[in-house]
Amino acid sequence: MALTLGLQTGHESSAALFDGKRLVAAVSDERITRVKNDGGRLMDHAIDAVLSIGGRQRADVERLALLYTFFPEEYFVRESWTKELERRLVRRRRKASGAERPQMLLCNFLERLKARGGDFDKHFKKDAFLAGEGFPRAAVSFHDHHLTHAISAGFFSGFGECAVVTMDGQGDWGVHHTSGVFRDGRYERQQVSDGAGTSAGMFYGHITELLGFRPMRHEGKVLGLAAMGDPRPLYDAFLRALRVSADGQALTSDFTGADAEARRLGYLREVIAGHSREDISAAAQQVLEDVALELIRNFLRRSGQRKVALNGGVFANVKLNQRIAALPDVDSVFVFPGMSDTGNSVGAALLDMLAADPDALRDAEPLVDVYLGPQYDDAAIEQALAAAGLTGTRLGEDELVATAARAIHDGRIVGWFQGRMEFGPRALGNRSMLARPTESAINDWLNERLDRSEFMPFAPSVLAEHADALFVGVGKARHTAEFMTITFDVVPEWRSRIPAVVHVDGTARPQLVRADRNPLYHRLISAYHGLSGIPLVLNTSFNVHEEPIVCAPAEAIRAFVEKRVDCLAVGSWWLSH
């Protein structure tokens, strides 16, 4: 099969490289540019990063899989009917803050093109695009936003046959939820929710904004606060803003038609007045969970499926995922680890393969890992240390593991920078900050050290072979828990032993670490287990607040210089304050 490059352009841009069906590399643009949720001109940095990892050049790419999102405007033919729209775009761009808004507006412009007779291809200057971006051999295909979500979840679940549910703020043509079935390497969409004022992702984003946080970025803070509040005072009021339709197949609300989102936002602003942020969050979370569960349960019964694969930004909500797994209707659940838009580069490439060969995605195997980014050898690390005016101690693997485990056991914060960078929103042991989980106070002072204001506890990385002794219900979600995409109830006798990774509701969001997936990280946790009797470490992403997870050695070294971490294991090099 061909060398295929999938691209998610615009907000949360990324690139994914496939050699045949093998996913060779995937990188988010933000990790390279160091701008959170970056969506640059055409994510040149991510493209070049994945090609470099694969040992290829742009001229080698045979197939280019794209989505209907932001592209440089010189690659599109304009018509007279667009003049007023362009003027409005310019006016709104001037009012917009950050990089996301203009790209979303241009995405809507492309949707308008397609809506006017399906003439997108006539307006897209394909030859100019390929020449201008340096892809002389590539065949180009465009793919639907929610189809890319769905195919990634179905294919990488390894289920063979399952229900697939996608849910987010909004994708192409106003769609924000789909339900379908993945079977024999193909996906069939069966249910759709669209239209303004009915999106679950936008509903939760409204609550995020009204609480003073940044929507599309800080929804996790709302999730953390939800466990501290009472949903009852606002629950019924919030059901007016999000509920399941009468036929049980779609999402709806009281707010539809013109200016639906603005009216829903205004309504929510009025009804939450005088309520605590904890109660507001609790009601929003309860409504999201109940509505999503009803929708999913209805589809499982209609489709006859008992395994479910999930994708889309709403399923970054790990507590929701736990409740889905707990349904009696569900035998197993999988959440695609790149559940936000950044994962759509992977889905676009898969859809391109499927379009070229209807049998291309048969015999899918479960996702092995997401260590798909760049790695750096000791020579590159030594050069970065020298540039920072530092000298570290080079250790053999056994000594590095023992030294880091001892530091963690002694209460120090260890920056752990090893191997290939993870793809997706979670640090999974290659770009992580590690600490012992035995002190609840660590949440406050580590948040202060990292300039964060989190309301969730930090997550544990757990030796996979001990998971059932610590958590309830692992069996339905063992695979997806390798990617830190779901919470479990912590077994009561363990809650007091590992308070730093247990939330107030008694749950934790673990990463199950397998020796055959990440042997070095597994060895480190095992060494800490030998010292402490505790088969897990506290794991948080290696970054400060509002900064992407570190990618290159220089960024990890800067965190050490700024004393964000006490010790740094970067490749074979060890540094300690």
The helix fraction, in percent, is 25-40%
What gap, in angstroms, lies between the N and C termini? Answer: 51 Å
CATH topology of the largest domain: DHBP synthase
Number of strands: 23
Number of self-contained structural domains = 3
Radius of gyration based on Cα positions: 23 Å
Question: What layout of secondary structure does this protein have?
Answer:
Elements: E1 3-8, E2 14-19, E3 22-28, H1 29-33, H2 44-53, E4 63-67, H3 83-95, H4 100-115, H5 120-123, H6 126-133, E5 139-143, H7 145-157, E6 161-167, E7 175-183, E8 186-194, H8 200-210, H9 219-226, H10 232-239, E9 243-244, E10 251-252, H11 260-271, H12 277-303, E11 307-311, H13 318-325, E12 332-335, H14 344-356, H15 378-387, E13 393-394, H16 397-409, E14 414-417, E15 431-435, H17 442-449, E16 459-463, H18 467-470, E17 471-472, E18 488-490, H19 492-495, E19 507-508, E20 511-513, H20 519-532, E21 536-541, H21 553-561, E22 567-570, E23 573-576
Parallel strand pairs: 1-4, 4-5, 6-11, 11-12, 14-22, 16-20
Antiparallel strand pairs: 1-2, 2-3, 6-7, 7-8, 9-10, 13-23, 14-15, 15-21, 16-21, 17-18, 18-19, 22-23
Helix pairs in contact: 3-4, 7-14, 8-11, 8-12, 9-12, 10-12, 12-13, 16-20
Descriptive report:
- 38% of the residues lie in helices and 19% in strands.
- It has 577 residues and is an alpha/beta fold.
- The chain has three domains: 141 residues, Nucleotidyltransferase, domain 5 (2-Layer Sandwich), CATH 3.30.420; 183 residues, ATPase, nucleotide binding domain (Nucleotidyltransferase, domain 5, 2-Layer Sandwich); 199 residues, Carbamoyltransferase, C-terminal domain (DHBP synthase, Alpha-Beta Complex), CATH 3.90.870.
- The strands form five sheets. The protein has an eight-stranded mixed sheet with strand order 13-23-22-14-15-21-16-20, with helices on both faces. A five-stranded mixed sheet has the order 3-2-1-4-5, sandwiched between helices.
- Helix 9 crosses helix 12.
- The protein is globular.
